[in-house]
Amino acid sequence: MGHIHYFQRYSSRENAVTNNTLQLFARIYEQSPTQLANLLSEITVQNVEIGIDINQQQRSGDSVPDGSIEQRSFKILIETKVDSGVDHKQLKRHANQFKSEEQKILLLLTKEVIGHEQLDKIASKVQGASPGVIFANTTFEEICSKSKLLFKEHETQINAIIEDYWQYCNDSELFDQAKFLMRVLPCGVSLKLNAKYGIYYHPSDRGYTNHRYLGVYANKSVRYIWKIKSVFDITWDGETLIKELVDGEDTDEFDDRIISIIEESKSHCGYFTDEGYRFFCGDPVETNFRKESSGGIQGARFFNLKELTDDLGSVEAIGKKLRGRTWS
Question: In terms of pTM, does the model score above 0.85?
């Protein structure tokens, strides 16, 4: 069965992208209004306050009421640009929609960061049309990276939602992380075979996020990694190997290894992968990228290798950089 997603994948139109982003904000708000305020403050570079402020005996002028309950008024208008250019006139029209809000922010979502010169030019036009409006720009990648820092590891449901939004953005090419992305998968009894042949397999109908690197995990550590060279859907009847290229290089280099891991998985692990399985092939490098927090991992975890090392020149260099490092 394919993976069920929180965010729909069936359109790249800007209204669908906006809807999914607003859905993320709504889910974060349901979990913690404070954390949504933190996220919005980060991506707009403004102090956004959400919720009421309760005070006792607070002086205002010559009056000291026994108590007060107040809420700062703010409004954030969002414009999303995915494939089209920025329309200055459209942004000025949006800015005119603000009324008497105490805090007025016009937020532009884009795939790439807007340069300082263009950003200043837009901000000047927006503020000229509607004084007091703050213009801000953020990217989908920044929303993802900031969101992933909001919650603790044990807050699994909201973290799963954030992870799915991150995968949605990657799959929809709202940012290109695939070339830096390492997918880490728990491997129990099959670990030695995965490492021996540089092959990981899972059912062909199981969805997955695009990624360039694969790591196999056991005993609280990523033990081996490889750069994915070829991805095949396989049928093996004991005599003939039928391969359908899914991604990467169409090569016979891995044929013997694929047959061997299929046969040895039966005898060593009790897994029957002759048909209906997808094989991710490469040349493994040993490492020791340890999980320091308690518990194991129940499913795939993703790491942006660009955030872990500047040296992506070779898998050997990556493995060496990760050896001895920790994550949670």
Answer: no
